[in-house]
């Protein structure tokens, strides 16, 4: 309200806050309020499904020691929202496995992990880190991680900074590739993403 009033005052209209409020009500005008990002502190109950083993230490001493994974959204004109799950090795900072799908389910995260595992053939001493999305805390995904002999790590609840490395890659993908194009459909988006990652 104060902002609108100061604007009117600068234009030469001397008006009170109450009058601005009344006029806005009559004209059905509302202020646009942008919520500030709130960092939610983790409670002990949040860690029942796993701990943050990575703890924002994005440095790795060798390949296949620390992997990070996440899902991002990509829009297409015909098929609507599509989803990319990526796995990055923190030593090379390269995407070693990914899956692109029309549905955001556990299958996409398992497929990305399988591709990374087949490509890298890691030893057992490996952390795989993700946020606490339903695809990563699902029984199927956790079972797969355990079967591969990996140590699963989770970001603290509501904290994107804990998975900053992979989120940064997805931001670069959007900035340098996705935001410059309008993909007709899933197939066209899939080809472009393949070229970006593999190139």
Task: Give a brief description.
It is built from seven helices and five strands; from the N terminus they run H-H-E-E-E-H-E-H-H-E-H-H.
Salient structural properties:
199 residues; alpha/beta; Nucleotidyltransferase, domain 5; 2 domains; five-stranded mixed β-sheet; 5 strands
Explain what you see.
The protein is of the alpha/beta class. It folds into two domains: 1-34, no CATH class; 49-198, 2-Layer Sandwich (Nucleotidyltransferase, domain 5), CATH 3.30.420. It contains seven helices and five strands. A five-stranded mixed sheet has the order 3-2-1-4-5, with helices on both faces. A hairpin with a 4-residue loop joins strand 2 (80-89) and strand 3. The longest helix is centred in the middle third of the chain and has 15 residues, at 106-120. The chain is elongated and about 75 Å long. The N and C termini lie far apart (51 Å).
Largest sheet: 5 strands, mixed
Order of helices and strands: HHEEEHEHHEHH
The average pLDDT score comes to 85
Q: Which percent range describes the beta-strand content?
A: 15-25%
Q: Regions with pLDDT < 50 over 5+ consecutive residues?
A: 33-48
Kindly provide the name of the CATH class of the largest domain.
Answer: Alpha Beta
What is the topology?
Blueprint: H1 2-10, H2 17-26, E1 66-76, E2 80-89, E3 94-101, H3 106-120, E4 127-130, H4 134-137, H5 139-147, E5 151-154, H6 164-176, H7 186-198
Parallel strand pairs: 1-4, 4-5
Antiparallel strand pairs: 1-2, 2-3
């Amino acid at each position: 309200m104060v902002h609108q009033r100061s604007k009117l005052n600068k234009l030469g209209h001397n008006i009170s806050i109450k009058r601005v409020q009344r006029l806005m009500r009559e004209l059905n005008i509302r202020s646009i309020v942008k919520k500030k990002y709130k960092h939610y502190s983790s409670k002990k109950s949040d860690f029942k499904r796993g701990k943050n083993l990575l703890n924002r230490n994005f440095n790795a001493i060798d390949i296949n020691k620390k992997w990070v994974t996440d899902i991002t959204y990509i829009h297409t004109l015909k098929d609507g929202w599509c989803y990319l799950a990526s796995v990055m090795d923190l030593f090379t900072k390269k995407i070693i496995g990914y899956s692109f799908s029309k549905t955001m389910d556990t299958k996409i995260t398992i497929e990305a992990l399988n591709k990374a595992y087949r490509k890298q053939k890691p030893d057992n001493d490996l952390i795989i880190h993700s946020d606490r999305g339903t695809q990563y805390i699902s029984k199927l995904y956790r079972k797969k991680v355990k079967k591969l002999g990996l140590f699963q790590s989770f970001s603290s609840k509501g904290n994107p900074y804990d998975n900053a490395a992979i989120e940064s890659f997805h931001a670069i993908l959007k900035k340098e590739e996705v935001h410059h194009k309008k993909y007709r459909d899933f197939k066209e988006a899939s080809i472009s993403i393949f070229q970006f990652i593999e190139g």
